[in-house]
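INFO batch 0412 | record 1 of 1 | parsing
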Amino acid sequence: MSRFLTSACVALLALLVANTVQAAVITIEGTVKSVDAEKRTISVKTKTKTLELDVSRKAKVSVKGKTAELDSLKVGQAVKLDYHDGLEIVLKIDANGAPNVDAKNLEGEWFVVEEELNGRKIARKQRITQNRRLTFIDGKFFMSRVIGGRLGTYEGRITFDFTGDPKQFTFKGKTPGGNPVEWRGIYQLKDETLTLCYKYVSKTGRTESPVAFKTEADAGTPFVLLKLNRDETASAALEASKRDMKLLDGEWVVISEELNGRKLTRKQVVSQNRCLSCMDGKLVVSRVIRGRLGTYEGRITLDPTGDPKQFTFKGKGPGRNPVEWRGIYKIKDEALTLCYKYVSKNGRTKSPVAFKTEANAGTPFVLLISKKH
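INFO prediction complete | emitting tokens
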């Protein structure tokens, strides 16, 4: 009997060891949101979500290659973690120097007050016509400008290296035409004036970042210098938008619905089971129609400066066709109210002005009241 129990214990131990070995150590990259050295926990914000993780008491912690303690990590530091998904614990933390306060200070909207391209200063009239504006928000970067009477936007992600002199940045994203683009440059933030000097990276990828805040005619690639001032009004609106976006994050269940002036019955609302999920500007709306689940997916942008506050959704419908909504919203007492119209093909659809729908809108006109799940 004892021999049988011993064999069983050995087999169980072998199984546990095998499962532990099979569990993978994964790499997690992000920035420190918070640290509790006493509880041995760390909160890390990645590109897609925030993770709350336990840290092993034997975990190796280093800052720029030098051994450090867990409580030496600072909010905003870039970190790389080795995480054991079987034991559900952090085994190693590598941090990259001090947090970059510039990334936070740059957040907001900026407008160009001086511009230079390949050694040539852009005339004031041309600069005003182009109306070049830059927006920084949570590592995302947008630059809009008017060329030939048409508005175009660069969008992507921007990273900063503040350890050099001058400080450097890299932008990777898409042009207004949707083509991939990369810039390598330097930046300076002084007395509420932001200066960017950068080159478009050539197809060979060998383009080097500028070393001084001036451009040259024979750079072999577009070489740009921008001096910008902060748009205080737009930046304040951006902060308000971020606050509302944070409130919007999460899961919502529709409890009341109206379509083109007609309120749906409770049975219809329950049958459709319409749910909204929002995270960092990504919106997913699911509902059941005739027994089939369909999903809208895309991005939502908020404009909290109006009364009522406005929003725009651009994405794809259940049939993967492009869809756009323009509407108004309010968030109060854990309730979210959206009132919106589907934008027609001519693009002239205007946002509603009140939280009620109409029968003869010429396009689907929706009112949703949701509770946080």
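INFO post-check: The helical segments are 2-22, 101-105, 124-130, 232-248, 266-272.
INFO record closed
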